[in-house]
Specification:
This protein has 188 residues and is an alpha+beta fold. It is built from five helices and four strands.
């Protein structure tokens, strides 16, 4: 009897197992869902790669900007060591020895259109205050004219004359006079 029960159970279980074996593969809906999941995963990976590439490009651009700013600072520091043009007594024409200095300033200003300069005109103490103010202005304008002719924008350059009011060297010697007859390019 025990054997009959086992046989009956086996006979009943065999078709059930067979039916389950036939239907155990994924359904069309399950396959579509799996394909959709894989497509979404690939899209997410592609988007992550694209975002990583964009971040890399932005970081490289920021690095280039930083390097350019540092180079601009170094160039400006070098120019500030050569910012003075000296003039002969009672003259406002630029000596040819100062052309290279002014050319460096002009090139820097053209590369950096956001930079501005004030050209200060100065004189020694000889002459009346009114005359020295006018002479200092002519000296500053000579420097301005050189820069403008070299291609610098007029919006980057202004002039001011101090006449004899701000001497570089105190005294009445020829050396002091020569040091005070100048045009100075001051970056803002």
């Amino acid at each position: 009897m025990q054997m009959n029960k086992v046989m009956k159970s086996f006979i009943i279980a065999l078709p059930v197992v067979t039916m389950m074996a036939c239907s155990s593969g994924p359904s069309e809906e399950e396959l579509a869902a799996e394909r959709n999941r894989i497509a979404q995963q690939q899209a997410a990976e592609e988007q992550a790669q694209q975002e990583a590439q964009e971040a890399k490009v932005k970081a490289e651009a920021a690095q280039r900007v930083k390097m350019q700013e540092e180079q601009t600072k170094r160039d400006l520091a070098a120019l500030q060591n050569e910012q003075t043009v000296y003039f002969d007594f009672d003259r406002s024409n630029i000596k040819s020895e100062f052309y290279p200095v002014l050319q460096k300033h002009a090139e820097f200003l053209m590369k950096n259109p956001g930079k501005k300069v004030v050209i200060e005109g100065h004189c020694d103490q000889r002459g009346t205050p009114e005359y020295n103010i006018a002479l200092g202005e002519r000296r500053a304008q000579s420097v301005q004219t050189y820069l403008l002719n070299a291609g610098v924008s007029s919006s980057q350059v202004t002039v001011v004359s101090y006449g004899e009011e701000k001497p570089a060297v105190m005294g009445s010697s020829e050396y002091a006079f020569a040091q005070n007859r100048r045009g100075v390019i001051v970056y803002q």
